[in-house]
């Protein structure tokens, strides 16, 4: 019975996701000639609809921990990346967030135009020093607008418990942008896995850690960031599997796949 509920709920949510996303993209293309705030409003409406659909159709909600560490305004959030969920979550939290996205995503026809209009930052992971300079310049521009910048240091989604090296771009932002950098841990992959059709009921936990103090050398910063995010995310994964035992099989499949 649980498997049937999961399949039906996932199918219904995916239909809403695809249909509403297509409509939102068309709407935002129509809004291209207008000021960016109109496109941002459309994205926020899209994000809140996704949250509502996930909660109603799947039974998946979220909780925030470490709210006292959240800074509304010029700050960088280095977030663990396990799911598509966190790619829209920050639109629920902030009025005008700016995501850092890999260049390949920004090159997708239509979608890339929409992301650019919303002020997303493109990063070329193979571009070397010149790409890092461009990344820092563009992130500084968004920060000067009092926007929160969202970065996924791993550069791709991972399974719960999986760890891959963080990209050096996050260290460049830490050393050159002179704003608070807040590590963010989560366990979203337990409920909405990488490239997974199925979504599972429960409660995603996203936890904001204390900001990392300035002045660290690059290697020390990366080590501290990785340790903070990975340890906290692993603890949240263990807690999530205890609270929602059905996610144990999801985590096991993810690690074996």
List the main descriptive attributes of the protein structure presented here.
single chain; 257 residues; alpha/beta; Glycerol-3-phosphate (1)-acyltransferase; seven-stranded mixed β-sheet; 9 helices; 7 strands; 14% strand
CATH superfamily membership: Glycerol-3-phosphate (1)-acyltransferase
User: What would the principal axes of the Cα set say about the shape?
Assistant: globular
State the secondary-structure class: alpha/beta
CATH topology: Glycerol-3-phosphate (1)-acyltransferase
Which percent band covers the strand fraction? 5-15%
- Order of strands across the main sheet: 1-7-6-2-5-3-4
What's the number of structural domains? 1
Low-confidence stretches: none
Walk me through the structure.
- The chain contains nine helices and seven strands.
- Helix content is 52%, strand content 14%.
- The protein is α/β, with parallel strands linked by helices and 257 residues long.
- It has one domain (60-256): Glycerol-3-phosphate (1)-acyltransferase, CATH 3.40.1130.
- The longest helix is centred in the first third of the chain and has 29 residues, at 2-30.
- The chain has a seven-stranded mixed beta sheet with strand order 1-7-6-2-5-3-4, sandwiched between helices.
- Helix 1 (2-30) packs antiparallel against helix 2.
């Amino acid at each position: 019975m649980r498997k049937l509920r999961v399949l039906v709920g996932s199918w219904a949510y995916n239909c809403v996701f695809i249909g509403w996303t297509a409509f939102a993209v068309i709407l935002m293309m129509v809004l291209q000639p207008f000021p960016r705030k109109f496109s941002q409003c459309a994205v926020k409406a899209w994000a809140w609809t996704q949250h509502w659909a996930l909660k109603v159709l799947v039974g998946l909600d979220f909780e925030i921990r470490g709210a006292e560490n959240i800074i509304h305004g010029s700050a960088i959030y280095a977030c663990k990346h396990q799911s598509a969920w966190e790619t829209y979550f920050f639109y629920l939290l902030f009025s005008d967030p700016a995501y850092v996205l890999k260049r390949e995503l920004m090159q997708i026809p239509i979608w890339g135009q929409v992301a650019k209009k919303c002020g997303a930052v493109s990063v070329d992971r193979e571009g070397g020093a010149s790409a890092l300079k461009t990344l820092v310049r563009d992130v500084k521009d968004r920060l000067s607008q009092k926007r929160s910048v969202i970065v996924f240091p791993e550069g791709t989604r991972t399974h719960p418990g999986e760890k891959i090296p963080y990209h050096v771009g996050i260290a460049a932002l830490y050393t050159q942008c002179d704003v608070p950098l807040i590590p963010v841990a989560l366990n979203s992959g337990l409920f909405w896995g990488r490239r997974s059709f199925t979504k599972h009921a429960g409660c995603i936990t996203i936890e904001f850690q204390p900001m990392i103090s300035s002045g660290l050398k690059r290697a020390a910063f990366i080590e501290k960031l990785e340790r903070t995010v990975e340890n906290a995310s692993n603890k949240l994964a263990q807690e999530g599997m205890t609270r929602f035992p059905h996610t144990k099989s999801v985590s096991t499949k993810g690690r074996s796949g």
